[in-house]
Write a structure and sequence with these properties.
Shape: globular
Mean pLDDT: 93
Structural class: alpha+beta
Oligomer: single chain
Radius of gyration: 27 Å
CATH superfamily of the largest domain: Aldehyde oxidase/xanthine dehydrogenase, molybdopterin binding domain
Number of strands: 26
Strand order of the largest sheet: 9-10-7-17-14-15-16
CATH topology of the largest domain: Aldehyde Oxidoreductase, domain 4
């Protein structure tokens, strides 16, 4: 297999950028990636272990912190293994070759006669010595060769094929989260977040606030207000009191219905992808429009951070997806050099994209600045999480498909209208942190240009269908004037775009009297897609043949970002008082699966989350703000509602890894939407598919 240089190695080409040898002759490896609960650290350790030939339990992996590890950007987009893992694999291959060369010189033999297994140097299967004896001779200044001889697929996974999650026991029985951190002398902080980040503080009785139970100090900087207290409870109670007693000047303009506002825009679309003239075809056109509302991340724990200032230097512990980008943003807010700030990743209790982690880090840093040398922990309230954190973007997609006389789709035209799908720290050269707008020396965010096409796109992600449809055109219209804060949420625009595209394909298949799966298969030209869909078809025949009244089935398929993992999902549903997903069968292809169990976990997690989005989740808004205060106002899927899951993985060890974490959201949402259409004969085009939405669609269909 031809070896390619992974992108991070271009910025960090030295062996010492990726590992060090301790005085005790122990190997410590570095990764700029972070563990968000997806199990990627386990997979990275497996890759190191397999490539080097050393037991996993002997490997130490240091994840993202700005004073030690490579800057690999955000841990997002299913790229941890694709880029980060491949970089480590090349670094370890270079290390292994050095160890073998040093050992060969010591033994006076050719390096080809030696092997490295279980941390031992072997010559024709016989033990020579442990690699510990040669580690002090490793040249960490050497470059990781472009032709680093990583193991061939046939040589991999002879040992250590699957290991337990390295972080699982601590997550279940320990205190691994930034929320759990306790330091000597620690104070607890809480911000007083207004309903909108552009609000200006008019009045607040700061003296009365300072006398609330447990309050040590009230911090005010412009319209930013926060409290420092002796406990988390006292901090949150004081902040809630202040929020109820304060008065704010709101910005002008109110949005009654975000989706209606989006689709009413009249400015021009931008063509972001075009493979031919879609209008050269004459014949029958079909179209479908589907919209999704703003949705929350729904992490089980709210955003949190710990910060400490000492001698004008700031240290922050955070569950951010991008510690280097957060460091740069904090440097911009405090107008200090980046080297004066250290940002260390510490696990959070749930992450599906750009949530409130970075904002909580700034809140903690502003408060900690007032108590030099004392660590300050901020844990947002659920109110803060639902009012201050970025949300998944509202959007509407219209797709049109041309059908020729032979029943084939021969052109596809997509129009995406959306707010931007990313406002991460540093976007547009500004901090993009909530409280940075409130402080006296305000740092206003720039308009987000959305995620560029080279990174998979934002609103237009997966707008191009994963089939051979002839010419395809995708147009995008970004809307910036809504007052609600949106940013990256798992799969970005792919979720809605796959639902509308797969929904339109289903409508055409039903209209032609063709089986929806067979209709898809005949439009596939690549063998991997065909194999995936044929496998799904064979695995789901029994479900389709045994449907009861009020039940329906549906499928959805997409190759994520057009270049990453492939996923096809089948569901069958029962529609009665509401929609119940009974069974889910998925077939996925992520190339080389480093940890098959981990891949399946990610696919299943995406499916469950997508079911929740599709059937339940919608952020309620009123004017300038959300109106969600607690879980009672924002229902998500319950454990009792999780369907039976049959998760099938087509393993391709000779292929490059493609990523898995975000491949199932779109196909799962499309499968549920199509199954409801099959059960009712009516398609719900405004998500989520709630009981109310179904009744409204049935009534409008009767008129």
């Amino acid at each position: 297999m031809k070896n390619q240089v992974p992108k991070p190695l271009l910025d960090y080409p030295k062996l010492g950028d990726w590992l060090k040898v301790t005085p005790e002759k122990k190997l410590v490896f570095f990764s700029g990636r972070v563990e968000l609960g997806q199990g990627n650290i386990t997979a990275l350790i497996m890759m190191i272990s397999d490539e080097l030939g050393i037991e996993p339990e002997k490997i130490s992996l240091q994840t993202a912190r700005t004073d030690m590890t490579p800057n690999e950007g955000f841990t997002a987009g299913s790229m941890s293994i694709v880029h980060g893992g491949q970089s480590l694999r090349s670094a370890v291959a270079t290390l292994r070759q050095q160890i073998l060369n040093i050992s060969a010189s010591r033994l006076g033999v050719d390096a080809l006669e030696l092997n490295l297994s279980n941390g031992q140097i072997l010559q024709k299967g016989s033990f020579c010595f442990s690699i510990d004896e040669v580690l002090d001779q490793i040249d960490l200044s050497s470059e990781i060769a472009a032709g680093a001889k990583i193991k061939e697929p046939s040589q991999r996974w002879v040992e250590f094929r699957e290991i337990e999650r390295v972080d699982l026991l601590e997550r279940m029985t320990g205190a691994p989260f930034v929320h759990d951190m306790i330091e000597e002398g620690m104070l607890f902080g809480a911000p007083v977040h207004p309903a909108n980040m552009y609000s200006k503080l008019l009045t607040l009785d700061v003296i009365a606030l300072s006398k609330r139970p447990g309050v040590i100090k009230v911090v005010q900087d412009g319209s930013f207000v926060g409290v420092l207290a002796t406990s988390q409870r006292f901090a949150l109670e004081a902040a809630e009191w202040a929020r109820e007693k304060s008065e704010w000047k709101e910005i002008d303009g109110k949005i009654e219905n975000p989706i209606s506002h989006l689709v009413s825009q009249s400015h021009d679309f931008e063509i972001v992808s075009e493979t031919g003239d879609v209008n050269k075809n004459s014949g029958e056109w079909h179209e479908l429009t589907v919209s999704r509302p703003y949705i929350f991340h729904g992490s089980i724990g709210p955003a949190a951070a710990v910060a400490k200032w000492e001698n004008e230097r700031l240290t922050v512990w955070t569950h951010s997806q991008g510690v280097f980008q957060l460091r740069d943003a904090l440097a911009g807010v405090f107008e200090t050099a980046e080297e004066n700030i250290t940002v260390i990743h510490k696990a959070g209790s749930g992450c599906y994209g750009h949530n409130g982690a970075d904002d909580a880090a700034l809140d903690a840093a502003i408060l900690a600045r007032e108590v030099e040398g004392i660590p300050v922990k901020v844990i947002w309230s659920r109110y803060d999480e639902f009012h201050a954190a970025p949300m998944g973007a509202a959007m509407s997609t219209k797709s049109r498909a041309h059908l020729d006389q032979d029943g084939y789709i021969t052109a596809f035209d997509v129009e995406v209208t959306s707010v931007p799908h990313s406002s991460r720290p540093g976007t547009g050269g500004t901090p993009n942190l909530r409280s940075a707008v409130l402080i006296k020396n305000s740092k206003l965010p720039a308009k987000s240009p959305d995620v560029p096409a080279m990174r998979g796109g934002g609103a237009e992600r997966n707008a191009v269908p994963s089939y051979d449809f002839g010419p395809v055109r995708v147009k995008k219209r970004l809307v910036h004037d809504l007052p609600f804060r949106a940013s990256a949420l798992r799969s970005l625009g792919a979720y809605n775009n796959v639902i509308v595209n797969e929904g339109l394909i289903d409508e055409i298949a039903h209209r032609n009297g063709e089986d929806p799966l067979a209709f898809r298969i005949k439009h596939c030209v690549d063998d991997r897609s065909k194999e995936l869909l044929l496998r799904l078809d064979s695995e789901t025949k029994r479900y389709k043949e045994n449907l009861k009244e009020s039940q329906g089935w549906g499928v959805g398929y997409a190759r994520y970002k057009g270049i990453s993992g492939l996923c096809a999902v089948f569901v069958n549903v029962t529609v009665d008082e509401g929609v119940v997903v009974d069974n889910v069968v998925s077939v996925s292809d992520v190339g080389e699966a480093i940890s098959p169990d981990g891949v399946k976990n990610q696919i299943e997690g995406g499916i469950v989350q997508s079911i929740s989005w599709t059937l339940k989740e919608a952020v309620k808004t009123d004017g300038l703000s959300t109106t969600v205060d607690s879980w009672f106002d924002y229902p998500i899927i319950k454990f009792s509602e999780i369907p039976s899951l049959n998760t099938i993985l087509i393993e391709r060890p000779s292929e490059k890894p493609l990523g898995a974490a975000e491949i199932s959201q779109g196909p799962a949402g499309a499968a549920v939407s199509n199954a409801v259409r099959h059960a009712l004969g009516v398609r719900i085009t405004e998500l989520p598919i709630t009981r109310e939405a179904i009744i409204n669609s049935l009534l409008s269909n009767e008129i």
